[in-house]
Amino acid sequence: MFAYSAYNLCIHSDVPFPELGFCEVMPKMTEQPPDVVISFRQISESEAEAADGGNRLLAFMESAEVGRFLVEFGHKVVIEPAPGIEEDILRPCILGPIFSVLLRQRGLLVLHASSVAINGEAVAFLGHSGWGKSTLANAFYNQGYSLLSDDVLAIRVAGSYPMTFPAYPYVRLLPDAAVSLGYDFENLAFIHLGALKRNNHLVRGFSQAPVPLKRIYVLENVKRSQNEIEPLQPQEAFLELTRHSRATNVLITKDFIGANMRQCAELIKNVSIFRLKRQSSLAALPDIVRLVEEDLAKNNGVRSLCC
Predict the structure, then answer these.
(1) Hey, what domains does the chain have and what are their CATH numbers?
(2) Sign of torsion over alpha carbons 238, 239, 245, 251
(3) What is the rounded CA–CA span in Å between residue 42 and residue 65?
């Protein structure tokens, strides 16, 4: 048994997860039970029959050819791989879609976003896959900031201030992005042999302590002639949060749909949400970082503009 810490959770797993950092082999369960247990085994008929599409979710991992999984009450994860599927194929599914389900079952708002810590507060970049979230987070890391999460952002909305929970110290980069950021792509860690991206280990300053969420920048998949930041109206912000919420395609019960909408609406009351329009060139990354830094330094959230 392996023990890890991610999203402020103690996780015990049958198989290793190199992405989660330091691994300690656990010969037996300690007196205090873990928050999450990940098992690799066949899902029983009784477990499948009890699945309800909500707090007992049974679903396929990308497709039936990869396998299926069961997540119960944000505590138990059962992975049933298809015959011949390697663990390297399964791990990204577990750390992405499956953990999104688990975190939502635990009552958190889960967004498709990467985030960094700036002056003790979390700043998130929201957008679909391929829109540059990981590359932008790595660009901030190269300027001395700490990575919090890549692709899966977990937020506790309840309370006096929204809090984020750091995930693991990796981002996934394409070859051109890695080169533009100063890395040798061939020296980065494989995700799996068929993956176009590779894992970049960003361990400096990484901490598992929860961080208050200061601001969300919604990315665009549109080429722009200049870098620009503009505030979103509440209606626009709500639409962006809901369409970039994770696991909404599988957690479709009334309770989960309602909870996600309430959490998005509540988050808007406490966190500033802006649209970040960017030049498509990777050479523009330093200007984008500087623009966001200047925007964060302001107190009034007035529209910012950079060449």
Answers:
(1) 2-106 (no CATH), 110-306 (3.40.50)
(2) positive
(3) 15
For residue 13, give the H/E element and its range: strand 9-13
Contacts of 115 (CB under 8 A, 6+ apart): 122, 123, 124, 125, 137, 147, 148, 149, 153, 164, 213
- Which pTM does this prediction carry? 0.92
Query: Residue 104 in 3-state DSSP?
Result: helix
Q: Is residue 156 a contact partner of residue 163, using CB atoms and an 8 Å limit?
A: yes
How, if at all, do strands 36-40 and 76-81 pair? parallel
Q: Give the whole-angstrom CA distance, residue 88 versus residue 5.
A: 20
Helix (H) or strand (E) holding 116: strand 113-118
Mean pLDDT over the full length of the chain: 92
Which positions ≥6 away from 269 have C-beta within 8 Å?
none
Over the stretch 131-174, which tens digit does the pLDDT of each residue have?
899 999 999 999 999 999 999 999 999 877 999 999 999 999 99
**Amino acid symbol at 286:** P
Q: How far apart are CA 218 and CA 273, in angstroms?
A: 7
Dihedral (CA of 237, 239, 243, 247) sign: positive
